[in-house]
Specification:
CATH topology of the largest domain: Alpha-Beta Plaits
Order of helices and strands: EHEEHEEEHEEEHHE
Radius of gyration: 19 Å
Largest sheet: 10 strands, mixed
Mean pLDDT: 96
Number of helices: 5
Number of domains: 2
Strand content: 25-35%
Oligomer: single chain
Length: 248
């Protein structure tokens, strides 16, 4: 029997056609598709361990999974072989041997999400399902001020969707929120040590409510302290969200 190898694999995917990453009973998921293709290339049944759960329609510019195998396949051969089996909306970016105790999820030190907005009266046919079409005027100075209230180590229970598990620790550290505007493009980069269910989408939706004057920046501290999802803003649509980078 060959020695067991632990592979660290990076991939990217367009989440439009999938019910998120993790295998579910109610729809096709990224994990389901990738596991089938990896198992075929490695010539053995495997289970992949993903770095994160992503919701239906959410994309990934960089997503890590770990997988154990007896195969002696070369890393480049793995990349080429699995990409040859995958559909066009999923791509393996790299593969490397990792220490036996490496786990894509539990070894992760932090994540960066990107939220992409197309800010225009007219829709862009080239960003359908890849950016949130937002028609209202956008006020970056108000949003940047408000974003400062959401950085640091805080209890983000107010920014966790109703599907959040009871008794879960809702304290997270947000390292920074970077806002970039370029013509009709708005980009939010949100980096932290971890995120709750729908947390990034609620944060972005709340910042858009600040831009519209529905919520003031000064209210965000009391919203955080209240621990009540109903006090925070809207949940931005899933299709504008990307898992952008993973840190180990």
């Amino acid at each position: 029997m060959n020695e067991i190898r632990n592979l660290k694999v990076m991939m990217a995917y367009r989440g439009t056609a999938y019910h998120g990453f993790q295998i579910q009973n109610n729809g096709v998921t990224v994990q389901e598709i990738v596991e089938k293709c990896v198992s075929k290339v490695l010539n053995e049944p495997v289970s992949i361990q993903g770095c994160s759960r992503t919701d239906t329609g959410v994309h990934a510019n960089q997503f890590c999974f770990s997988v154990q195998t007896h195969s002696k396949i070369k890393n480049l051969g793995f990349v080429r072989g699995v990409n040859g089996e995958l559909p066009k909306d999923i791509s393996i970016l790299s593969c490397e041997d990792a220490p036996p105790d490496f786990h894509a999820r539990f070894s992760c030190k932090g994540k960066e999400y990107l939220y992409l907005i197309h800010n225009s009266e007219c829709k862009d046919p080239f960003t359908t399902d890849l950016a949130y079409h937002y028609r209202r005027p956008f006020h970056p100075e108000l949003v940047r001020e408000a974003a400062q209230h959401l950085t640091g180590t805080k209890d983000f229970k107010s920014f966790c969707a109703s599907g959040c598990k009871e008794n879960i620790n809702t304290v997270r550290t947000i390292y920074d929120i970077i806002l970039e505007t370029e013509g009709e493009k708005i980009r939010f980069y949100i980096r932290g040590d971890g995120f709750l269910y729908n947390m990034v989408r609620i944060m972005v939706g709340t910042l858009l409510d600040v831009s519209e004057g529905r919520i003031s920046a000064d209210q965000l501290d009391s919203i955080l302290l209240a621990g009540n999802r109903l006090l925070a803003g809207r949940t931005a649509p899933a299709h504008g969200l990307y898992l952008n980078r993973i840190f180990y």
